[in-house]
Q: What sequence folds into this?
């Protein structure tokens, strides 16, 4: 697990299997159809045209929430209106949970190129024991 924080937002980056276990996206197309949603693929992918219906489902069924997959392939556990793909989910609603395929949350120390892309400096790293791994790499960005 890794964390990124700056004045505008905070992200808790986890491995893909941890993200899916915690968030529990609904992949069953029959179940999605029962709620009036029409997935585009086999894994419950919902396009932007389904967003209004998806929001209605989440307002009526409080156990659900929206997961957004952005154009840069980051999957975020909250509604991001300009995302490319959306999912209905029934698990942890923590809006800071993120799966980012470009950052390895299990790395004990990321190289400077990654920090440059994130807008962080390597000297801003701190370590502490994490819940999902032996080490949590936290990056505080200005």
A:
């Amino acid at each position: 697990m890794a964390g990124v924080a700056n004045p505008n937002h905070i992200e808790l980056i986890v491995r893909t299997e941890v993200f899916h276990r915690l968030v529990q996206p609904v992949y069953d197309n029959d179940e999605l159809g029962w709620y009036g949603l029409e997935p585009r693929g086999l894994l419950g992918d919902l396009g932007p045209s389904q967003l209004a219906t998806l929001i209605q489902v989440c307002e009526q069924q409080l156990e659900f929430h929206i997961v957004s997959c952005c154009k840069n392939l980051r999957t975020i556990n909250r509604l991001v209106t300009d995302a490319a793909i959306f999912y209905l989910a029934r698990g942890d609603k923590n809006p800071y949970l993120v799966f980012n395929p470009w950052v390895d949350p299990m790395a004990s120390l990321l190289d400077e190129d990654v920090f440059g892309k994130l807008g962080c400096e390597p000297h801003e790293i701190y370590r502490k024991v994490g819940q999902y791994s032996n080490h949590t790499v936290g990056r505080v960005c200005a």
Residues 120-142 have pLDDT under 50 and may be disordered. The longest strand covers residues 65-69. The radius of gyration is 16 Å. The chain has four helices and eight strands.
